[in-house]
Design a protein that fits this description.
It is a single chain. This protein has 583 residues and is α/β, with parallel strands linked by helices. The chain has 20 helices and 18 strands. The protein is elongated and about 145 Å long. The model is unreliable at 1-14, 501-514 and 517-528 (pLDDT under 50).
Amino acid sequence: MDQKEETFPRGSSEEHLHLRLIIIIPVIFILVSLSVGLLAMTLTQVVFRPPQPSSKDLLLLRLGIVGSSLLAGMFGAFLAYGITKPVRKAILEAEKMIRYAKADPVPIKAANEVGALSALFDQAFVSFIEVVQAREMLDGINEGIVAVDKEGRVAGMNLRAREMLEVSLAEARQQSLRELLGQSPSNNVLLSIAEGVLREEQERGHNRVPFRSRSGRELLLSVKASPLKLRKEPQEFIGVIMTFTEYPGSPPQFPEIIGHSEPFTEVLDLAAKVAPTDSTVLLMGESGTGKEIIADAIHHLSRRKDKPFIKLNCAAIPEGLLESELFGHEKGAFTGATGKKPGKFEQASGGTVFLDEIGDMSPSTQAKLLRVLQEKEVTPLGGTQVKQVDVRIIAATNKELLQEVRTGRFREDLFHRLNVMTISIPPLRERKSDIPFLADHFLTVAAKKSQTEKKPLSRSAMDCLLNYSWPGNVRELENAIERACLLANGSVIQPEDLPLAFTPTRQVSAPHANGLEVKTDRIETKASLNETLEAIEKELIIQALKKSNGVQVEAAKLLGLNHKNLWHKIRKHKITPSFLKEG
């Protein structure tokens, strides 16, 4: 007769197998031993006909049989545990493989334990094949893939990732990502991306991320980091998947400079090209954009990097003393000149002189600086001896020098001498994709300075940083982050901890030729020009519709627009004209 097939659910099949393998076998040993003992006692009494034993002897005999049966059962339990241990281990491994490869494995169906075990291994074998196929497919992708658990340890990586990171899978497994990337400052950006996703559980993507391999090879990577969650339990965060490809372009020459936006990388590319030459460089940009950092990087990438690099702020030194600082002076050249002193050009011989805020230099000093650029020679104040100098000049200004030339405040011939290679550094509001990286760097610096734990920014605080116009540029961002770290009461920096969050609102008024006027409350620090103009336009349309009692043709005449344009703007601002009729 055919046996009826029994279905074992996934959880109960394991319990059935373990129960029968570990408990039923010892019970069988006990029953068999007890039966054999009783059968032997009965056969002895019947066949050999011994003298009639006393009740005490029978009791001892039966106790001996039961004791020996129990010992046999214990021996059976020990034997069953030892025999089934490899089987149980294999079952657990098979179930792990099934759950790893299949999100919802089918229930195991079998008539008995042997059938269940066979079905389990068949399913595990299929799952193992799927795992192998998936790994081969991942190894065939020309994109590095690294899996990191929620503790920041490397769980796995494909072949391309191992090639780019120059590490074996056995070496990388269970290492932290920080240990894997090493101590190179170039890799801090890649590490901060992973740590940001682990902290916020939000996807991030970045281009032109610098990376330095163990052999010293420098690359630019395009990186995408995504939170890894279970499909059936999306709230369960288990780690991060990082994918990266090599970004086309030259390797980063300035790993110590933070900035990967397109406008800023163009600046770095220009700086890298001009650095090996002796050409004069003019850096132009608003205050706080990092002109001094770029000048320092150009010097350290030049052939003069082992020679002096002397910085001088032309706006911070009085006009009478600036010439002395630049060209030096002889004893008695002016009141207080008690001895001979070499100037900055003489001190920096063979190296670089950085003239910051050159737009504030007086015309007389400009004329003498022009001679240094043309003839490569200086004459100290109060002296007659001409001295040859071999220096490279990097100048910087926050003014529009061409406009200064037109107004007569800056010499045109000096401008053309300085304007050999001009690099315009974009303000922070034009490179907002760099703000998260800069903020993370300043948070690390602030934590080290105060010797406290690094405080992360909340998502809303980061939105505040991204929406702010930053008139003080990178320097203002650094000060804002340092202040927020000091003021924050919690472990995470919130918008109210940022100094820009307390900027008062102001009313922006816009008069109109037809007597319309708009007043709109805006937060000055958070409102971009486009946002302000949009708000003004919407308010003007609303006032015009109110004056025309909701008639769009009349409102268009008031605004100086044609009817079709006004209709599009009403739709864009989601205005309902019928609600604006008088009464």
